[in-house]
């Protein structure tokens, strides 16, 4: 079992501790996957902008240009799914970190109970 002799660790995993969403997002930039989080935060708005551009171009394209309509519709769908996948991955990282903190708090309670 984990050693909880450090008082700072006990304070960090206090049972009444509840992080806000903002604090979780800030903490995600401090982890070992920080570079990947930064890439997602840059890529998601860029891909969303691509999706908006494709939607606008779709409605501006002449109806006789079927290839153009299909291309813009496909690009819009691809970009929309891409943004959804990036957000799903990012929120799964946030949930993973919250679950790990809850497990550590549970370990601390069990360790305190055994003492």
SSE layout and pairings?
Layout: H1 7-12, H2 21-28, H3 34-60, H4 66-114
SSE string: HHHH
Radius of gyration: 22 Å
How many discrete domains?
1
> Which structural category do the helix and sheet elements fall into?
mainly alpha
Helix content: over 70%
Number of helical stretches of at least 4 residues: 4
Care to give the gist of this entry?
The protein has one domain (7-114). Helix content is 78%, strand content 0%.
Overview of the structural elements:
The chain is an all-alpha fold. The protein has one domain. Helix content is 78%, strand content 0%. It contains 4 helices and no strands. Helix 3 runs antiparallel to helix 4. The longest helix has 49 residues. 3% of the residues are buried.
Short descriptors:
115 residues, mainly alpha, 78% helix
């Amino acid at each position: 079992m984990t050693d909880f002799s450090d008082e700072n660790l006990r304070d960090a995993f206090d049972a009444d501790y509840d992080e806000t969403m903002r604090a979780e997002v800030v903490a995600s930039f401090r982890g070992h996957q920080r570079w990947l989080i930064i890439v997602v935060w840059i890529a998601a708005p860029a891909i969303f902008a691509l999706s908006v551009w494709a939607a606008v171009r779709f409605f501006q394209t002449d109806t006789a240009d079927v290839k153009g309509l299909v291309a813009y519709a496909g690009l819009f769908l691809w970009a929309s799914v891409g943004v959804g996948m990036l957000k799903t991955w990012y929120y799964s990282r946030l949930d993973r970190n919250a679950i790990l903190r809850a497990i550590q708090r549970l370990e601390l309670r069990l360790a305190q109970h055994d003492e």
